[in-house]
Amino acid sequence: MFPATAVASLLGIGRLRPAPGTWGSLVVLPAALLGPWWCLALGIGFAVAGYWAISILPEARADPGWVVADEAAGQCLALAALAHSASFWWVLAAFALFRALDIVKPGPIGWADRMEGSLGVMLDDVLAGLMAAAVLLAARFLLGEV
Fold first, then answer.
1. How would you label 82-120 residue by residue, b for 16+ Cβ within 10 Å and e otherwise?
2. Do residues 15 and 73 lie in contact, with contact meaning Cβ atoms separated by under 8 Å?
């Protein structure tokens, strides 16, 4: 089951302390350099691969701290809302917003977090990423950057 563990932990990034979820989000930030479509593709890819890995690892279905593929998926989805030439500050805002939503878990994010099994582990972070993306798109629109 080594491949599933490698996917779920992002090649061991999830074993870093403190705050493995933050490390899982940080490691994908360079994806912003690839542009929004690549970030979207990576977010979907991490979500599918993470779901697969978690579904075959019984110990991962309780969302242990070392499982960070879900954070990578959500963070990439948040980054997909940025312009191709997004500044460091926009990337930082995407990171901070995603992490805040992932930690606080408002509304549907909290609902998904309470779900059991592989879907619940992945869905709360995917929803946090989508919610962060919506806020970032609204901010870009209000600032005339869309």
1. beeebeeebbebbbebbbebbeebeeebeebbeeeebeb
2. no
User: What's the chain's average pLDDT?
Assistant: 94
Q: Using only C-alpha atoms, what is the Rg of the chain?
A: 14
Looking at residue 84, the DSSP 8-state letter turns out to be T
**Contact in structure between 65 and 21 (CB atoms under 8 Å):** yes
Q: Specify the pTM.
A: 0.94
Q: How far is CA 52 from the centre of its chain?
A: 16
Residue 53, pLDDT above cutoff 80: yes
- Would you kindly state where each structural domain of the chain is located, as residue ranges? 23-142
11 Ramachandran zone, left/alpha/beta (phi>0; psi -120 to 50): left
Neighbours of 36 (CB within 10 A): 17
